[in-house]
Structures are given as C-alpha cells and as structure tokens.
Amino acid sequence: MPELTRRTALTATAALAAGAVAAPRAAAEDHHHASPDSFDEVYRGRRIQGRSTGGHHGGYRVTVDGVELHVMRNADGTWISVVSHYDPVPTRRAAARAAVDELQGARLLPFPAN
Amino acid sequence: MTVRKNQATLTADEKRRFVAAVLELKRSGRYDAFVTTHNGFIMADTDNGERTGHRSPSFLPWHRRFLLDFEQALQSVDASVTLPYWDWSTDRTPRASLWGPDFLGGTGHSRDGRVMDGPFAADTGNWPINVRVDGRTYLRRALGDGVRELPTPGEVESVLSMATYDMPPWNSASDGFRNHLEGWRGVNLHNRVHVWVGGQMATGVSPNDPVFWLHHAYVDKLWARWQRRHPDSRYVPAAGTPQVVDLDETMRPWNDVRPADLLDHTRHYTFDTA
Ligand SMILES: [Cu+2]
Ligand SMILES: [Cu+2]
C-alpha cells in the first residue's frame, strides 16, 4: 500500500493561519441537541462545525466559517468532501479539517456554486 | 479515424493544436459546461442511492461517453485533435514532459498552489476557474504532495488480472476490477492519481485541470486492456438492479446511451499501442 501522507502543504500554510493548532471550543450551549459525533472547534484559524440538523431524515451539516461543506459518507464509514473528493478520511471532523488544509485560507463558496 | 496517443509521444505541433482547441472551448464557454456536469454527478452519486458517474459499475462507460463528448467538442474546433492519454505508471514524476511549459505546465507554487507556467497558468488570462467550490479563480496543483507515489506498473497489473468486472453491492465497497481501478478499494489507481495531482484535480470540479482528460483517457485504455485480457468477462449487472445502471439501461445525462453501446471503443477510436 502506498503511504498516504497528509498534505505536506500543511507546513507551508501553517504560518498563514491565525491559530495553527486545533483548539476545541467548549461544548455548545445547546448541548442537549448535540449528537455524539457533533463538533465545534477552531482549526488553523477557521471555525469548523458539524452537527445534526434534526428531522427524521438524519440530516447533518458541516460548515467552515459558517459556509456549508458538502460531505459524503462512503459505504465503509469513511468520509469525503467536495474539496477532497478522492481521498477518504475516517470522520466528518477529519473531512472538515482536510477541507481547511486544502482551502489554504480561501473562503468556501455555498454549494451548489455557480 | 480517431487514434488516441500516449501524451509522451506527441509532436510539438500536436501539443500546440491540442492546447489551442482546449483554450478555444474555454473561451467559448463550452469547456465549463463539462466541469459543471461532472461536479453535479460527483455530488449526487452516493453508495446507497442512485449512482451513475462514480462509485458504481457505470463509472467506466459513463466516463467513456463523457470523454467522447469532450473529444467531439475539440474536433469541432480542430478536426485533427484527439484526446491523448497519460500513462501515469510510466511518466510518474513532475519532471515528465507532460508538465512542460509547452503542454500542461508544471506544479503549483508552494504557498498557494498556483500554477505559474504553461498555457493554463492564471497569468495568461486564458484559464479562469469559473466553476468552483471556493474563492480561488486560478488553476492549482501540488504534484506529489497529497500522496507521494503514483501507481506502479505492477499495481496496474494486479488490478488488470481481476477477472470479475464488478460485484454487489455495486458501490465503493465492491470487490472486482471496476472498484479497484476506480480506487475505493485495494492498491488504488484512479482516485490516487487525482490526489497526486492535487489542486482542483482533487475536488469535485476536477475537469478544471486539463490533465483530467488525459488521466481518464488512460483509465479508459486500461478498461480496453482488461477486456482483451478477459474476453469471457462481461459488464455486470445485467438487469434489475435498483439505483444502478444495468447493461441495457440508459445513462443520465444523455438518456439515449447504454453501457452495452459503449463496450466496444473501436467504434469510436483506437489507441496507438495495445
Ligand atoms: Cu469523474
Ligand atoms: Cu476521475
């Protein structure tokens, strides 16, 4: 198996990010709505959040600085997002962090873009 | 007759004409429609829902037809142009002539991934990224950053040796040739190449990078090689599979073409070598 390295660009962009280290926020005030897999943190200067949106359809929303990131679950439980579509990672939080790495500070566009 | 050639063997004139035809499709707006179509399918194809372009048996015929559309568009600009293919198991470094300034240009700047040379560099003004998922309007690449190595000839061989085209559950969890070629399982061929190129090629709007077509032309050639290697193996499933395109079902977005119509590439083009 090839070694799947995390992006080496990480080191290059770390200097640009306001906070290079992931800093988990205190659990949101509406913790009674939070599912076990929800998250809310500042990762490399960007706020990433994931939470269930309720409803009977099991909706879930991942955002980067408040803009929704399109994510998708693979049959084996891994995740991808529209900005990293060929490189599965274990969790939605990992997909959000991979998106921040890929964006290198750029803003995400609401989807469907254009 | 259309002959698809290895990109490494193209003459200077063939490269020039290919680039000029691509740039003309971009200028006229026709290019971006291909990007939009691809992103629409990649966001909609899901493992447990309807799936057509990706993570399903029709990954190969869908991209074959998509590339035929694009090649015909190129030929409407310059009838001498055909799609070259990139054998990434052989031309496997950023120093390959593919990435030269006379063809696709090289990797991106380390700070922001911006491609700085070649006909598709943002500075030319000829290659705006319009169909995009983030604010950046310039072509980006990070050759070899997201994953260090492109697939080897031995890894390609190990996938070509799989005799079964595809298997239930007909998605990213499947065993068999299609899913190993697509890369959701095993040594990972097609997906890994997208990740190796990086930039827009690693995203749903991957056709923003012209190397998309050369990558998929080689994936398509591997399908043809697999067919010759396994003459008794067939496209499956044959019929009655919910959410999945069976052999004789039509495929979106065309709705007038079935996998069965696309199994024989020689009706449309041949390759320079076997
Ligand atoms: Cu595709
Ligand atoms: Cu692809």
From TrEMBL, chain A:
<keyword id="KW-0732">Signal</keyword>
<feature type="signal peptide">
    <location>
        <begin position="1"/>
        <end position="22"/>
    </location>
</feature>
<dbReference type="InterPro" id="IPR023199">
    <property type="entry name" value="GriE/MELC1_sf"/>
</dbReference>
<dbReference type="InterPro" id="IPR006311">
    <property type="entry name" value="TAT_signal"/>
</dbReference>
<keyword id="KW-0186">Copper</keyword>
<dbReference type="GO" id="GO:0005507">
    <property type="term" value="F:copper ion binding"/>
</dbReference>
<dbReference type="InterPro" id="IPR010928">
    <property type="entry name" value="MelC1"/>
</dbReference>
<dbReference type="GO" id="GO:0042438">
    <property type="term" value="P:melanin biosynthetic process"/>
</dbReference>
<feature type="region of interest" description="Disordered">
    <location>
        <begin position="22"/>
        <end position="60"/>
    </location>
</feature>
<dbReference type="Pfam" id="PF06236">
    <property type="entry name" value="MelC1"/>
</dbReference>
<comment type="similarity">
    <text>Belongs to the melC1 family.</text>
</comment>
<protein>
    <submittedName>
        <fullName>Tyrosinase</fullName>
    </submittedName>
</protein>
UniProtKB/TrEMBL annotation, chain B:
<keyword id="KW-0186">Copper</keyword>
<dbReference type="InterPro" id="IPR050316">
    <property type="entry name" value="Tyrosinase/Hemocyanin"/>
</dbReference>
<dbReference type="InterPro" id="IPR008922">
    <property type="entry name" value="Di-copper_centre_dom_sf"/>
</dbReference>
<comment type="similarity">
    <text>Belongs to the tyrosinase family.</text>
</comment>
<dbReference type="Pfam" id="PF00264">
    <property type="entry name" value="Tyrosinase"/>
</dbReference>
<protein>
    <submittedName>
        <fullName>Tyrosinase</fullName>
    </submittedName>
</protein>
<feature type="domain" description="Tyrosinase copper-binding">
    <location>
        <begin position="209"/>
        <end position="220"/>
    </location>
</feature>
<feature type="domain" description="Tyrosinase copper-binding">
    <location>
        <begin position="54"/>
        <end position="71"/>
    </location>
</feature>
<dbReference type="GO" id="GO:0016491">
    <property type="term" value="F:oxidoreductase activity"/>
</dbReference>
<keyword id="KW-0479">Metal-binding</keyword>
<dbReference type="GO" id="GO:0046872">
    <property type="term" value="F:metal ion binding"/>
</dbReference>
<dbReference type="InterPro" id="IPR002227">
    <property type="entry name" value="Tyrosinase_Cu-bd"/>
</dbReference>
<keyword id="KW-0560">Oxidoreductase</keyword>
